[in-house]
Amino acid sequence: MKIMLVRDRNVLNTNWLVYFVNLLAEKGYEIVLACDTYNKLGSGNVLSDKVKLVNLNEKTSNPLVNLWRQVRGKLFPACFRFKKLIETEKPDLIICYFPVDLFNVTRFQNHNIPIVLMVHNYPPVVLDKYRKKPFLTRWFYKRSFKKVDVFHVLLNSYVQAVHNFFEPKRIESIANVVYQFPDDEKVDLNHEKKRIIYVTRVEKKIKRPHLLIEAFGRLAKDFPDWTVEIWGLQKYPDYDRELENLIKKYHIEKNVFLKGYNKDVQALYRTADIHAFPSLVEGFSLALADGMACGLPSLGFKEALSVNEVIVDGHNGFLADDLDDFTAKLRKLMEDKSLRIKLGKNAVEDMKNYTPEVIIGKWENLINSLVKKDKNA
Fold this sequence. Notes:
Layout: E1 2-6, H1 15-26, E2 30-35, E3 51-55, H2 63-75, H3 78-89, E4 93-96, H4 99-106, E5 115-118, H5 123-127, H6 135-146, E6 150-153, H7 159-163, E7 171-173, E8 195-199, H8 209-219, E9 227-231, H9 237-249, E10 256-260, H10 265-269, E11 274-276, H11 286-294, E12 298-301, H12 307-310, E13 317-320, H13 323-335, H14 337-350, H15 356-376
Parallel strand pairs: 1-2, 1-4, 2-3, 4-5, 5-6, 6-7, 8-9, 8-11, 9-10, 11-12, 12-13
Helix pairs in contact: 3-4, 4-6, 8-9, 8-13
């Protein structure tokens, strides 16, 4: 069975995507990973030899070809290139990572190949923007959405959110695969590092690292030997300055650090005692889940979608009502090593619900039902 997974760019930057297609290839599926990008293929992850990567607009060693591809990428829609690729590869199933990928495999095309559209976040975050497009673009996307056989969401609680936008043929809830750490790669909470980390994108509206700094700032005098490290891509200089000013306000320049991007995220968890996660909403946060699978107790907010389903309050971490409660529960975790160890052990066990065997098994059931149904039609 041949599966074409489409993402327009940055395919090798996305850990989960590469892990997912490699796992499908190991199951015996013929995988074509297709994109259309001149400069943004990405790096940092290695595809299995069993996965065929096709970049329809890749940069070559020929300057004239490169010039043409740059011009072509701006003047001619990618859907025509994908149309030709689909006719060549003849996949049994197409999985689209983003709505733009769905657009590229359906616009001006009449194939009857079943399509799965992934929704890798809280659905309104992904889908609401298409309501705000100009009329003609909105009309094209509406036609494309109607061709989707299955909308894939990450949590059961997100199913209704898709219904609020469309009348889909079918919705399936399948979480992300969570890497299962071998025992020698898990964090050793018996060895106290006195370090809190937050692995995130440094951004104000959704990720909210300022709330962690604020909470720690209130506690810092009682825990002078503890540190906070915020790891992740920094793209907003004004917000970075805001965080630096907040750090100065509490005089915690020697305790709180913006560490920037690090590819080896898994190694970071072993350096910490607590994973604080003040995000407002997630699709299914692998940063959070990976930290828990490594054995870290986590702290988030009860209002935070996805976070409030992955963290079970009092069992594998804590969920806070507000900033005051977040601060109080952070104190509780910092004070009590035995509590951290207990919550961390529970977190490891809970993340076994997202093993490759469990999650890829659900994908196999979905894939086989779609292709079998299509072939019997």
